[in-house]
Amino acid sequence: MLRRVWSIHRCYGKGCSPLLSWTTLTTIFLQQLLQHHFMAPVSLYFGIPTKESSGEEQLQLSLPGLCEYVEQPLTVGLKDKAACVRRVAVLGWAKIHSLLPNSEIDAAIVNELYGLLRDPDPVVMVNCLRALEEILQEEGGVAINKPIAHHLLNRLKECDVWGQSEVLAILQRYRPRSEDELFDILSLLDPSLLSHHAPVMAATLRLFLSLCATLPAVCLSALERVRGPLLAAAGSSSRELRYAALCHIQLLLRSDPGLMGEHYKRFFCGYAEPPYIKQSKIQVLVELVNDDNVGMVLDELKGYCTDVSMETSQAAINAIGSIGRSYSERCLDILTGLLELKQEHITSAVVQTLKELVWLSPLCGDAVCTALERWDDQLQDAQGRGALLWLLGVYGDRVSGAPYILEDFIAGVRSEVSAEVKAELLTATLRMYLSHPAETQDMMGRLLHYCIEEELDMCVRDQALLYYRLLHCGIEEVRRVLQGGRRSDLSLGPLIGRPPEPISQWASIFNTLESLTLGSSTVVNSDPSTPTAYTPNINTLMSSGDPDLTACSHGALSLSASPSLSPEEFERLWLQPEKGACLEAGVPCPVPSCSSESLQVALQLVNIQMLAFTPANKHPWKVYIYTHSSNTFISEGSRRPSQHLTSDGSRTPPQTLTSEGPRTPPQTLTSEGSRTPPQTLTSEGPRTPPQTLTSEGPRTPPQTLILAELLQVDREREEEPEERGKKGGVLVRMRQYPGDQTVLTGFLSVLTTVLQTLSAQPDHTHS
Amino acid sequence: MISQVFILSSKGDHLIYKDFRGEAGSDVVNKFYEMVTALPGDQPPVVMKHKELHYVHIRQGGLYWVATTKADSSPFTIIEFLNRLTALIKDYCGCLSEKSVRMNFALIYEVLDEVVDFGYVQTTSTEILKNFIQTEAVSSKPLSLFDISNVGLFGADTQQSKVAPSAAATRPIMSSSGEQGSKNEIFVDVIERLSVVIGANGVLMKADIEGEIRVKCYTPSCSEMRIGLNEEFSIGKSQLRGYGAAVRVDECSFHQAVRLDEFDTYRILKVCPSQGEQTVMQYQLCDDLPTAPPFRLFSSIERDSVGRLLIYLKLRCDLPPKSAAINVCITIPVPKGSLSLSKELSSPDQSAELQPQNKAVHWEIPRFPGGAHLSALFKLEVPGLSSASLQEVGSVSLSFELPKYTCTGLQIRFLRLSPIQPGVSQRWVRYVTHSDSYTIRI
Question: Measured between CA atoms, how close is A699 to chain B, in angstroms?
């Protein structure tokens, strides 16, 4: 205790007053008194050291009478000459409030605390903010009006790192009155964006994002500004800081994928880095791949595949798989090369990655077949076995040795523990039966017998029973159910590249602990094919959808997205314009600011299929779409569900089984594991939403194929009179085979409506 | 705001526990240790959550430094606070280890009391703290043998051209007036971390240097210090000045206390160092090394007739002949299931061993002079060796230390205190380059 008095005395000695103030003495003696009387540590009151050995319970005093003795010295302490006493006294009020939450703190004290915001000592100022924040919690924390905000901003420089980040966080509550004020504040804060203290930089960026929520361009330039400091933090010598920076870089990349492109080498993993840093670096690397660096990045990732840590090597293999969606050839070489290492965890990860890859880019099938041809490994983990069986089922007809691999699985089915693997085995065997009936029939019989008679898992047994009954219906029926939609929609292939999310999607978790705990879950989010974040947007589009939309598609003009068209076909047709009708028109509406996913869904609602689009950060923006039209009037009555049964069997997948709502491709992907028999069937079903099927008109009128290219009109060209629109228009180039001008204009009006509806809804994407 | 701060040893012993807000019981300490030890490998451990309480921790000196919080605070702030706390305790206790924390628990509680009040960080500057911290550190003397063997780890350029023992800077900043206490020393360290990737064809694919100038001051009150850098020092690409041996960095940032009025013309940093250690300047250089990378590797990998894997490595050190690399450790990944290793090394002080759990061979070279070549032949017994297994011998990583050497060429021309204080006698300048990650692909 005396030591404390001594140290405070030394403080005074440095300052102007050589005298020990009364307050200090009272406070300290009171403290001593309390300690002696209650025999309990009361360090909570004054932050005065009371030593306790680690782990000892800290007793809390909540005696109402006690506060009477404390309040008086605290009130005096607020006016003390020594800054260190004022610091303690200010926080003392917060402590009283937290110990006795019901007691009213005198309004005069609150006023005095507000007054102390002008204290010359910056720590006292920040402590006042902290104390007021706690005392006024019910009223929503400390009130920040214009004078206070400006005062805080002007004194920001005096505070240390901790004070600055605290003040910046509290300033988020302030809304500038005018645009001029806003920009004054921004220019005042600009140097802090470049601070090499990561806490200040992050707090400033968070404040920027909240102040400029309505000005996306300013936000994006702020992201550019923090790139340097963030990269420096990502290379800091403290691993934990490195990790925090990496997590935040991932957030930034969600909105500005091109932000770190040229700095990809900064994300190469160090040899001695812990696995969690390596894994987040790998995740970042995947985002940064472009035509220039893909070779370097793949070389680097290849090295990680044989990492000692199994998780890291799996992450690297998955990363190669995701890059394979755009650069399939090189990635397939690496992946199939890895199979030759004959290491179980690597093989399993590769098989799972291949399964996802061939689903998204079916053109990779050949390489997978060659790899399966040479298969002689044993896999132990369930996911790997499931993925292998799925591949065998889908590519069974192209792999001659496939039935023999399957035979091993069937022989070992009794020792198989995982129900998912058994269900997958059933499906794969049945599919194999379609392509290799002679080899498979016998083993299929054994498998079905085992699953129906001996299997204890209900789902597996049900699925076996279903297949058994299906087989009774004849081979054609089996083929229809199992092979209908077994290959993915070819148009899924080019749909790569995630559209940038609006900053508001993640601004709320920026610089919070949540951004670091996302950790593994960001992996799911970073999957380009998961549009979870956009679903509200789609819903609003559907519910508030323009009535014209439905009228167009079901009225005069009937559009249909099937049969699907491969990118190659599209290209071939597009390059021979002389055969069909051509039309070029400008749509006077800005490029939809929504994500490409929502655009795709919106177009699918009117049965237009999107084939490819430019990554969102590219300029000019381009989209290729196609549809089939039949120029007929369909009355409401003729669109009965019974159409499904009469429709062409070879073309259409088994609609009867798809009783569920529209299944977006990613959903089907996740349910691919065939958990329950009915789901397996539906998930193997058509990938196109049911709307497509219901509007598929009678087959009699000849269908025409419409191809179109949507092109963003440059700002320079905007000056020409015919291209109107505030943000530039969209130029639509259409081709039709065979030509029919009226259909083309009808199609154009549908498209215009969609685009205008979408561009009228930017609020949904930003809220 | 921070609810609790505690320090655990790597075995989970409670070393320090301090509750600031009384929001959570002390059972969180055990809960934390349970969580952190049971974490699967793909889960990042830095931030964990259990029942509304966030646990943020860092690992330093083999200890867990944990802060808990209920509010959703800024991760950068908490991590930086913990880093700063470890630096403070290192300053006060001399070094960071379980032993020193145990011995100085009273001092650490005292520091924590002054640094944090009711969960809010008050100050972390030694300038202010020195008024309050009265407890003296108990320093654990390292073995003297260890001390002798490491002499010369850091070179020192001083007017007396003496060599400071490497342990000189690992003593507490406040020591009693006896023995070492009278030494008013100032250490200025230039530390660079090198991360390099060299491709299989010998092409330099990536080369980054992160450097910093650290001042460690043992003088309680120090007058202004002027640190003169190379005059040809330039920042960014546009500013190339002079001819020839310019020292260039891409980005450079300074401690806020550094005054830069003479920096533009004379490249002089002016700083009044406070007691303890602080980083006065940080700089980065990417992809453009002024000299060749310090090590080159030539390798050949083949299978011999008996089915063994032969790895022949020849390592060349491209440092200038006066410099040398020390504690060089080369890690060569080998195929899984490698059973035994027979080696032919060029000198007896080197050693190599097979570490099956890491699937790697470690080859250690205590001292590697510049311009020298060293070679090694490893014969590995690998059952079922296939040609694909050769793929697993992927990239060789090196870790090393280059004393008295900076890769950027940054030098400190002079170190002056003005006005010259009679008490201050010794100023040390030390240079060292560490390998952050040095990878050579085969």
Answer: 54
